[in-house]
Design brief:
Order of helices and strands of chain A: EEEHEEEEHHEHEHEHEHEHEHEHEH
Number of strands of chain A: 15
CATH topology of the largest domain in chain A: Quinone Oxidoreductase, Chain A, domain 1
Largest sheet of chain A: 7 strands, mixed
CATH superfamily of the largest domain in chain A: Medium-chain alcohol dehydrogenases, catalytic domain
Number of domains of chain A: 2
Strand content of chain A: 15-25%
Largest interface: A-B, 46 and 46 residues
Radius of gyration of chain A: 21 Å
Shape of chain A: globular
Structural class of chain A: alpha/beta
CATH class of the largest domain in chain A: Alpha Beta
Oligomer: homodimer
Number of helices of chain A: 11
Chain lengths: ~375, ~375
Amino acid sequence: MPNPIPQTMSAVLLTGHGGLDRLVYRDDVPVPRPEAGQVLVQVTATAKNNTDRKAREGHYSTRDDDEAVSFAIGGKPTLTFPRIQGADVVGTVAAVGDGMNPARLGERGLLDFNIYGTGRRDINLVPDYFGHGADGGFAEYVVVPDDQFHAVTDPTLADAELAALGMCSYQTAYHMLTAADIHPGEHVLITGASGGVGTALIQLCRIIGAIPYASSTPAKAPALCELGAQAVFDRRDTRDFVARTAAATGGVPFDAVMDLVGGASTRRFIEAMTFDMVARTTYPRLSIAGASESNVSEIPWTLIYLYQVRIVGVSHGTRAEAEQLVHWIRAGRLRPVLQAAFPLSAIHDCERYFVDRAAGHLGKVVVVPDAQWATHGAPFALA
Amino acid sequence: MPNPIPQTMSAVLLTGHGGLDRLVYRDDVPVPRPEAGQVLVQVTATAKNNTDRKAREGHYSTRDDDEAVSFAIGGKPTLTFPRIQGADVVGTVAAVGDGMNPARLGERGLLDFNIYGTGRRDINLVPDYFGHGADGGFAEYVVVPDDQFHAVTDPTLADAELAALGMCSYQTAYHMLTAADIHPGEHVLITGASGGVGTALIQLCRIIGAIPYASSTPAKAPALCELGAQAVFDRRDTRDFVARTAAATGGVPFDAVMDLVGGASTRRFIEAMTFDMVARTTYPRLSIAGASESNVSEIPWTLIYLYQVRIVGVSHGTRAEAEQLVHWIRAGRLRPVLQAAFPLSAIHDCERYFVDRAAGHLGKVVVVPDAQWATHGAPFALA
C-alpha cells in the first residue's frame, strides 16, 4: 500500500512570466485531491522540456495580442499563476477518485501530458497540457485523468528513464511522421536532431521502417548514429547541402523533412527534397514543429507550388498516437536517452544546466522530488 | 469526313522569351503528323491562360539558375523555340496515328493539356503541358495523345465555350480542392476569385457540396455570386478581415482557403481559419497555386505549427481529376465563363486585351483560327 497522503507537499511554483526567479521552491503547497475520472500520482520523476522554458519566458505569443504570451489556441491563455510546470510525469498511483479502480493503487505509470479538448482519438486541434493549463509534475503529487496515466511495469526501465520517454517529445515526433504520411523505406531528414523531439524522431523512423538522416553537430554524430541515424550532416555547413545529402542517400531526394529549425535553412531543406522530381513517387513533405533558428522562413511561393510541397504544422498529437507510443514503450521498442537527473529543490541549477549544457551532450534532463532522490534520482546524477 | 489536310498552316510562333514581338503569326508552318498513340486535331478554339504569358516573359525561374526561366520541374527547361503556345484546345479529329481508332475522325473534343511524365492516374509530380513542353493550340492543327483528347458532343456547348472549360484552370482548381481534402458543407475562401482558376473553384465547390466565399473586387461581385459564391469580400479592404469573414459565415472560421494571391494577405487568410480553433473539427488547410501579390509570404512559423495549419502547393492535377472534370462537362455540370474571342492573326491585340481588360470583366478569352472565325469566333467577338 502507498504511504498515507500528506496535506502539503514540496513543489516548484511558477509565479509569473520571467526569469528563473519566477520559479519558487516551496514545501507548503496543498496536495491536490483526485475527483471522479482522476488519479493522484506520487511523482518519482518528471522530464524537462523546452516548452516549460518557453512558457515561463512568454514565447508563445502568436497574435498581435501582447497579453497572449502563453498557449492560447482555445481563444484565451490557459496559463494562470501560480502554476506547477512539468509535463512528462512518472510515478505511482497514490489515490483514486470516486468510482475509479482501486486496484490501480501502487501502479507505476507514465502520464500522457495532453489536456484534450474533446473525446476524439484521431485529432487534437486545441493543444494544451499538464504543466501549462493545469498543474504538472515538478511536485511530489499531481492529479491527472485516470485514462491518461498509462501503466508501464517493465522493471528494467527505471522511473527516470521512463520519464525520458515522455509524450511531450515522443508524441510530437510521432505526429510529425503520421501527419506527413511517412511510409516504410522513405528517406527522412531530421533537423535539430539532438533535441528531445529529434532523438524521438530517429527512433520512431526506425520503428516504422523509414530511414532517418540527422542535421546536427559533428560532436553529437556518434550518439545520433547509435540511436539509428543513417548519416549526420553538420548543420553549420550550409555549402552544397543538396549535393552532400544526395551523396548520403544514394542520389535520391529526401522523401520528407522533419524540421525543428526553420529560418533560412528551410529553403535548403526543401531543395533537398525537390532537386530531382523525376526520382520522386510522392509529394515532398515538410513537417514543422518548431523554429529554433527563426520564426519567419522566407520561402518563394513558386518553390512551394511548382514543386507541390506540402507543409504540415504540428503541435502535439492525438490520443491514438499516445496509446501507440505506450504500446511501443511496453514492448521495449523505445530507448530512453537520459542525460542527467536533478533534485526538485535544485530547479534553478537544473534550468541553467538544461540551457547551457555543452555541445556533444544530448538526452533528457529529469527532475526528482528530494524525498525520492536516493532511489530515483541519485543513480542518474551528474558525475 | 474532314477536309484534306494541308501541308502548311497558320500558327503563332513564340520565338523566344520577351515581349509581344516574340509572338509571330505565320502561315507557312508545317502541319504535324500524328504517330501511334496520337491524333491530329483541327483546332476551332483555344483558350488563353496566364501561364502562356508567364512562360513567354520567363517568370518561371524557381532556382538560382538564370537559364531556367521556364518550367523545369523535370530537371531542365522543356520550353524550346520556336514553340506554339495554347493549352486549352478544342477542335475535331482530322487524322489518327497508326493503330488508333478511325471512328474518331470528325469527333469534337477537349484536350487534357498535361504532358504526363508517367502512367500514374493519382499523382502528377513533374507538371508540363501542351503549349510549353510541346506545341499547343494557337494554330490550325495540333498533335495530341489519343487518350487525352476527350470527346464532348453536347451541341448546346459551342466550341469556344468548351475551350473556356479547359483543364488548365479547372484541373488546377479541382486539385486544389482534392489536395486540401475538401468535404461537403465546408466553408472555403477563394482568393483571386475572378480569374480562370477562381471561377472554376467557385463552381467546383458547389458541385462537391462545399460553400465558396470569394475575395475579389466589388465590381465583380454580382457575377461571382451568380456563379455560386456565397459572399464576396472586397480584396482591397484589409481592415477587420477576420471579423468581416466571420459575419458572412455565421461566425465560424473558414475550413480551408484556396489562395492564388500570396504575399502579405496570406497571414490574414490563415487567421480567418484559426481565430476560433474550438469551433473547428479539421485542420486548417491552405492550398496555394499562385502568388499574384508577392512570391514571398512572411508567415510566423508559430502560426503554422501551433495552429496546425497544412499548406499544400498545387501545380496542375492528375489524370483521374481530368477525367472527372470531363465527366462533369459532359453532364452539363460546369458552366463556361467566356468573355471574348479573338482571331488567331490578332494575337497581339488579344494579349493586350487579356492583360488590360477593365475591372468588372471576368471570364476566359478564346483564340480562333481565322479560317474558323465565322463559325466559332464571330458569335463571341467583342461588341
